Amino acid sequence: MCHNGRREGILYRVTESVREEDLTPNPGSTFPDGQECLITRPLRVVPIAQVPLDPAELLTADEEAALWRQLEQRTQPEGGVPEP
Length: 84
Description:
Helix content is 18%, strand content 23%. The protein has one helix at 61-75; strands at 9-14, 23-25, 37-39, 45-51. The chain has a two-stranded antiparallel sheet. The radius of gyration is 17 Å and the shape is flat. The mean pLDDT is 83.
């Protein structure tokens, strides 16, 4: 499942147990260790609600550009040149 933040979405409920071995730390997380994980296998889900788009929650073009710049700075080596 993906979400771009600019379209309505669907909220899902996981219908099976998730075990520790199903999780891996998110390497790009800005949260403290152990606070954000990625799932390592497909999970069974059921849709439970439509999630409407709230225009008040959208980023401005400037806010989005600033976040992209922050991400680029975090993913470049110290010399500022991306690795091949």
